[in-house]
Amino acid sequence: MDDAPTLYAGPVTELAATRAAGAAADRADGRPAAIELRGVVKRFGPITAVDGLDLDVPEGICLGLLGPNGAGKSTTMRMLTGQAIPDDGLIRVLGRTLPKESKEARAEMGVVPQLDNLDIDVTVEENLAVFARLYRVKDVKAAVERCLAIARLEDRRRDAVDKLSGGMRRRLLLARGLVHRPRLLLLDEPTVGLDPQVRTEMWSLIDGLREEGATILMSTHYIEEAERLADEVALMANGRVIARGKPAELVREHAGERTAEVYGPPPRLEEVRARAEGAGLRVRPAGPAVAIVGSERAPDGAVPEGAIVRAANLEDVFVLLTGEEAD
Amino acid sequence: MRRIEPAAVAGVMSREVANFRTFWKATTFSSTLEPIVYLLAFGLGLGATIVDDIDGLRYVEFVGTGMVATAVIFSSAMPAMFGTFVKERFQRTYDAILAAPVDPEELVTAEMLWIAIRASVFGIITALGFAAFGIAVAASVAKIDHFNYVTTLVITPLFLVAGTFFPIDRLPEGFQWAAQLNPLHHLVELVRGTAFGFEAVDLVRVAVLLAFSVALWRVAVRRMERRLID
Question: Mean pLDDT across the stretch B88-102?
Fold first, then answer.
């Protein structure tokens, strides 16, 4: 594995070493913030998409920005790339104040968009070369080779993008975002619309970046994605962060230890809900079931026999705090 | 106005070059053949049967030089309108480019330059102006269908009242004045000057075309900033 491509080889390699030495047990403590947002507001006419958002992303962590559609995640991402200008508040990215120094900040960050915007008639290597030039990379050829290795597309380098499978295109899109060895990576819903196999491939690539110490801000509305990849999760709703922490801590704090799921016809589920809520427990919809959250605290009779008891998870937190069913 | 970095402009243009290599045959075919068809139909057809010489030129010479000039509007304004709209709205290309250290101003400038270079044999200054016009239109319309209004109400009249097919001084006086505002008319006269001899007034024509291109460049940048930055 000596000649395996370095997925991410920016200045953060120092951070990776720090991590390996165990010098920082808590990632958020004492690290400079790669991203700082203070009281950020963004309105579109009468709609307030981002409403007083405060958010820090310390260097060297992967922060999952989790929230339902319309929570303000994409607008936040667009403000970080200078494609949306906040109406109020402060944004600093890699020490640069936006939007004034947006261009300097963009030079040091990589962006992987939600929608595939590769040039489909152009070859794989030309797609990479164009972006190497846009990012002023000095050795374009070496950057292209490194990214081809990351995307595992060396043998497809001269193929037009529209000849690639969906998974290959997503890998290429991710590699394109790394063409200039960015200090910070923004992933906007990186696996939305992908089939499970391709999603798993993307997860292993992103996990590789995380292991190498990259600073990543990843917006997603997939609970499993956030649980598997993010060191910390910030849960967004109505344009602001409503909860933040490591996934396990968030689950412990908001959902307790166990959740009991009860299946049955709607009248029976209503009855179960009423009894559990009467006992002071929180209940959330779970597709064809109701889920009694924190069921370890349930008094006798509050959880009916036949309920499926499982460990509480981030989905429980998501639904309890946002009131929306998770994907 | 912020500083325009040549590296950013070159980067955007390198993307255009990479794409152009994939479709240059079809584009070159239509942009070469179309003026020839017009030339045959008007120059040889009308010239041989109906129209006399104009200002001492055979009609085929009059129309031929005019066609060279008017080809610029089809090889700059139209690709700028459709190309910009498609890249912005459907392909999301500009989202990717603006996530890199490239500003809308650099993006617009690079797109204008590239389109004008493609159309350069027909007059780079005017092509820059019409490329900017196309980009500004693309950044202003909500739907691609709205280009029909622009084509019918702006491009076709500009094309027809440029002095390509008939001399402007044979038009009613009001139209003659209106034609002086048509950049394409000035280009037509400049191309005729190149072929058959310049006059002093041609310097004014160059100045008019320069002013047209600079003004439209600024309009295009402003419209694209509004479209691309929320």
Answer: 94
pLDDT exceeds 70 at position B90: yes
Q: pLDDT, tens digit, for every residue of A175-211?
A: 999 999 999 999 999 888 788 888 888 898 898 888 8
Q: Which of A84, A104, A121 sits opposite B229 (nearest CB)?
A: A84
Instruction: Determine whether the interchain pair B100/A131 forms a contact, defined as Cβ–Cβ distance below 8 Å.
Output: yes
- Closest CA–CA distance from residue A57 to any residue of chain B (Å): 19
Return the CATH number of the domain spanning residue range A13-251: 3.40.50.300
Whether residues A135 and B100 touch (CB distance < 8 A) is answered with yes
pTM for the predicted model, two decimal places = 0.82
Q: What is the rounded distance in angstroms from the CA atom of residue B224 to the CA atom of residue B101?
A: 16
> Residues 77..136 of B with a Cβ closer than 8 Å to A: which?
91-93, 95-103
Enclosing domain of residue B158? 6-228
**Burial label, A224 (beta-carbon count in 10 A; 0-12, 13-18, 19+):** middle
* Confidence band of B157 (pLDDT split at 50, 70, 90): confident
Please answer yes or no on whether A83 and B92 come within 8 Å at the CB atom: no
Asked if B153 contacts B100 with a C-beta cutoff of 8 angstroms, the reply is no
CB contact under 8 A, B11 and A133: yes
Q: Write down the domain spans for chain A.
A: 13-251, 257-311
Backbone angles phi, psi at A7, to 5 degrees: -65, -35
Nearest to A182 by CA among A6, A5, A7, A10: A10
Cβ distance A84 to B230 less than 8 Å, yes or no, reads yes
Output the CATH code of domain A257-311: 3.30.70
Name residue A234's beta-bridge partners.
A65, A244
Residue B1 belongs to some domain of the structure? no
Answer whether B27 touches A (CB < 8 Å).
no
